[in-house]
Design goal:
Layout (H helix, E strand, L loop, with lengths): L1 H15 L3 E11 L9 E7 L22 E3 H11 L2 E5 L9 H8 L4 E6 L11 E4 L11 H4 L2 E6 L3 H10 L7 E6 L4 H14 L3 E3 L3 H5 L3
Helix pairs in contact: 2-3
The protein binds iron/sulfur cluster (SF4).
């Protein structure tokens, strides 16, 4: 009994240090969205998210405790076998300290991308930051200066107003995307198309992996 308690505490310390991470799944596929759409990449999906988007398509990621704390070295070894482009996603990966994982991936000379809501402080070394802000829990300030792309998910018309508010906070090189939320894509895509033609600083991002029926 005492032994298992100590061991649980040790796991929790290692998770706090970012040396173990709640790994939900890892897979090699094609990046379907945003600037790198069409690029083969290895995805590392970490569990844990408390942002609570009602349309979230990975709700099974929310409870970190349902995903096994996994050593970063084994995650990195697996990733390096498949691709030189690694996408860290979630869940919300910035709930965890990303320094150890990204340092280990960099030691293998891999390109590291993150997909984040920005709701937690930015940690880690990134070659590409995709910031996808959510109304429920807005990004931490510093990430707006670092984001390479801003990807706003559009579920209804008000999301276009939110998109402009968020775009105003980004750096001047940040590429701006509007992406239809999948379950309402038939309804919102025509609205996004009209909006982008009228406001060409924005681009359309589609979840092409879902059209291709790949993960
Ligand atoms: S931030 Fe991402 S993972 Fe978290 S609830 Fe929203 S869509 Fe789901």
């Amino acid at each position: 009994m005492v032994e298992s308690k100590v061991s649980t505490n040790e796991v929790s310390v290692l998770v706090d240090q970012g040396l173990l991470l709640p790994l939900m799944e890892e897979f090699y596929t094609i990046q379907g969205e945003g600037f790198h759409q069409g690029t083969a990449a290895y995805f590392i999906r970490l569990g844990g998210c408390d942002v609570g988007c009602h349309w979230c398509d990975v709700k099974e990621s929310w409870n970190a405790e349902t995903h096994p704390p996994t050593g970063i070295q084994s995650i990195v070894e697996n990733a390096a076998k498949y691709s030189d482009t690694i996408v860290v996603t979630g869940g919300e990966p910035l709930m965890w300290d990303m320094h150890p994982l990204t340092e280990a991936l960099k030691a293998k000379n891999l390109n590291i991308h993150i997909e984040t809501s920005g709701a937690y402080p930015l940690t880690g070394i990134w070659d590409w930051i995709c910031l996808s802000p959510k109304k429920n829990k807005l990004p931490e300030g510093r990430i707006y200066d670092k984001a390479n792309e801003l990807k706003v998910i559009v579920y209804n018309k008000h999301d276009l107003i939110f998109a402009e508010q968020e775009a105003a906070k980004t750096n001047k090189n940040c590429i701006l995307y509007l992406q239809p939320e999948w379950s309402v894509r038939d309804k919102v895509t025509p609205m996004i198309v009209d909006y982008v033609m009228a406001n060409p600083k924005w681009k359309v991002s589609l979840q092409t992996h879902k059209y291709l029926n790949i993960p």
